[in-house]
Amino acid sequence: MARVFIRGFGELCLTAGVVLLLFIAYLLWGTAWQASSAQHAFANQLNREWAHPGSSSNPFDAKPDALHLVTGQPFAFIKIPAFGKNWRFTIVQGTTLAQLNVSPGHVPGTQLPGQIGNFAVAGHRVTAGNPFWSEPSLTNGDLVYIETEANTYTYRVTGKKWVLPSNLSVLDPVPGHPHAQPSQRLITLITCDPAWTGTHRVIVTGVLVRAQPRVQTVSQRAPAAAP
Known about the structure:
Blueprint: H1 2-49, E1 74-79, E2 88-93, H2 97-100, E3 105-106, E4 117-122, E5 143-147, E6 151-163, E7 185-193, E8 200-213
Parallel strand pairs: 2-3, 4-7
Antiparallel strand pairs: 1-2, 1-5, 3-4, 5-6, 6-8, 7-8
């Protein structure tokens, strides 16, 4: 009886180990494939919708965006050169798991790109293509580009901190000052830290330094999710 129990327990442990390994493989590669496929579809969708060139302009002479946000749908690209020359993702509306599992998402209730106040974007640190894996490495002076149908916005990183997930003041129009009247055009990037436990949030803030009408490139390639 004891041998049967030990053998059965050993088989159970082996099965559990295989299932765990398969689950980890799915988190690392399965979700990356899913996010990569979604990114290609989103990028192609935006490129079709934006099939007309912009024009040149002076800084801050861009016309306001007329964005119609739909939960789960893309409305902009985000590009961060510090993450690599080919790093580019779409931004969708919403930050539930359904949205973040396929793309970085705009936090509902925060401002839109280029607006006075706080434009907040959240993304997974790991899984879903690891879009914000390198966010903790950003330093003051790094640039973040947000491209909409009408304009390209350039933000410069000005600060970074770690907060608890319950700290929602980072989403205020003036982060940390809920009753203050905003006067700057800010961006806030949000992801989990440590990578697998997510006990804290990495908060990177930046300020708009340039806004100009989008210039369409000859070929706008769909972004690929990070491995």
